[in-house]
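With this grant's support, we have settled on a layout for protein records. One resulting record is reproduced below.
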Amino acid sequence: MSDPKEQPISRFPVPELGSLPSDIRDRILKVQEKSGFIPNVFLALAHRPDEFRAFFDYHDALMEKESNLTKAEREMIVVATSNLNQCQYYVVAHGAILRIREKNPLIADQVAVNYRKADISERQKAMLDFAVKVSQSAYAVNEDDFATLRAHGFTDEDAWDITGITAFFGLSNRMANVTSMRANPEFYSLGR
């Protein structure tokens, strides 16, 4: 078995940190300062600076805003739908974030494999049922789906948030899969 640190993190060129525009370099260095390492997604997507900026601005708009969804619930959506999209990078990376946010070393594996059997609330299962439907068959979403969400305390604005997160990470999953993006080894032990 080869050393994961010797494997390329993307099939596309990965720019050197020093060669990046200053705003992108500063953003990456802030993440490194906070987490202790640079998640590979930042380096891989820096290949296209304009798209990098748009990607992370939209990411932050979805994942960092105040709403009725907790930050852990947002991560549950990412993990559950990324698993459906067979996206190793996002299951591993956001699984680590989910473990940290929930302070639960088991939750990410449970949500990724089968959220219906996970140790989460019925409200969260309803949220993930909706996210999965958006991910796999958005054309079939109907008023009954919104009624189910409302019965669990979600608003229509929450449904928009669930949809936005699901859709954004659908794009992210496809980019990670096509670029052969590798998860940092650090992610595997975080929150355990």
